[in-house]
Amino acid sequence: MSVTIELDWSELETALKGLERRAGVQAQRRAMRSAAQIIRTEARHLVPVRTGSLRDSIKVRTSTRRGWVNAWVVAGKPHAHLVEFGTHPHTEKISRGRFKFKRRIRHPGAKPHPFLRPAFDRKADDAIRKVASMLKDSIERSQ
Fold first, then answer.
1. 69, 73, 87, 88: least buried by Cβ within 10 Å?
2. Which residues lie closer than 8 Å to 38 by C-beta, 6 or more apart?
3. Angle at which helices 21-46 and 116-142 pack, to 10 degrees?
4. What is the pLDDT of residues 73-131, one digit of tens each?
5. Dist. CA 12–CA 8, nearest whole Å
6. Which residues pair with 106 in a beta bridge?
7. What is the DSSP letter of 110?
């Protein structure tokens, strides 16, 4: 699941160009990481907890390529999307274990328990404000 936010901050962009290139990228990366951590914290509050492994796997990743700074909030467990979106009723092939005498079992499906999208919806404005304030502070410190 990916959500893109595009903002027109031409004045901010001009000011960032005034910073040294490396310092500007580092400032952007710090700002994006701290904004994504706001969303990560909310997602960790919203995720259903059985063992806590899914909650603990929610992390922030950042990257910089071709002048673009990206930040993601990711749930690292392989079943995260099944919790977020749920599953339809389906049959599963059984190869070993408790139901070994059967070839297939019917799974009733699972209801969705969204946690990433609601976290984004609730905290996107706070995250944007955090990016703006951190970049503003970086620009003011450099001048």
1. 88
2. 123, 126, 127, 130
3. 150
4. 999 999 999 999 999 999 988 776 665 666 788 889 999 999 999 999 999 999 999 99
5. 9
6. 91
7. B
Which residue is listed with tokens 């310092």?
Answer: 23
In the three-class reduction of DSSP (H, G, I as helix; E, B as strand; rest coil), residue 89 is classed as: coil
- Look up the pTM and report it: 0.79
Query: Nearest 5 degrees, angle CA 126-CA 40-CA 2?
Result: 90
**Among 21, 22, 11, 73, which Cα is nearest to 47's?**
73
Of residues 61, 62, 30, 60, the one with CA closest to residue 44: 60
β partners of residue 64? 69
Return all residues near 39 (Cβ < 8 A) that are at least 6 apart: 73, 119, 120, 123, 124, 127
Element (H, E) at 67: none
- d(C-alpha 5, C-alpha 71), whole Å: 11
Asked if 108 contacts 88 with a C-beta cutoff of 8 angstroms, the reply is no
